[in-house]
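2024-03-11 09:14:02 INFO receiving multi-entity request
2024-03-11 09:14:02 INFO entity count = two
2024-03-11 09:14:03 INFO echoing inputs for audit
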Amino acid sequence: AQSVAQPEDQVNVAEGNPLTVKCTYSVSGNPYLFWYVQYPNRGLQFLLKYITGDNLVKGSYGFEAEFNKSQTSFHLKKPSALVSDSALYFCAVRTGGYQKVTFGIGTKLQVIP
Amino acid sequence: EAQVTQNPRYLITVTGKKLTVTCSQNMNHEYMSWYRQDPGLGLRQIYYSMNVEVTDKGDVPEGYKVSRKEKRNFPLILESPSPNQTSLYFCASSLSMIISTDTQYFGPGTRLTVL
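2024-03-11 09:21:47 INFO inference complete, emitting structure
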């Protein structure tokens, strides 16, 4: 079985400040982790993913995520938030050989001007 | 333009009236999937398909059917819709489920209301 937890329904951050959106996971085996973003009235868009190797993964729009195996976490980060980053962010996980992808419930990011 | 399309985008129907939501991708992707998005529950997978004529249940398959007769199309069928199927539905596709090619591309969504 696999699961994802996004403990915060909403994250508020001031424009220009660093942001973190949290994600923890539970899998049997090696995890493959994703972040997707959903802008209002749009489908989800891929941001980045972790497969193996370097624990810091860089993705689109200046976002990065840090994989921490001991804490089973994959937090999304950005050094300086933009108002245009305001959206719904989903963390997702799957394991190799398993075709299902499990998504978290989403975290709404609000960047305040 | 590479894309996943869904039709209709919005649909209001009544309980018990059969409906089909179409999904089509033009990227020659093998893997296709349907999700529903509900407040507080996030995205939940309904069905997925690894290739033509190969489909399998996701986490919430009850009340839904799918078929994959062609690689590009993956329709979602609600034979007798009920109000608890009111939701926002997304179709997605990826090249395959090999680790290096499993990034999913999502359609724009279909907002379904069942009265």
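2024-03-11 09:21:48 INFO post-check: The longest strand of chain B covers residues 42-51.
2024-03-11 09:21:48 INFO post-check: Residues 94 and 104 of chain B are 5 Å apart (CA to CA).
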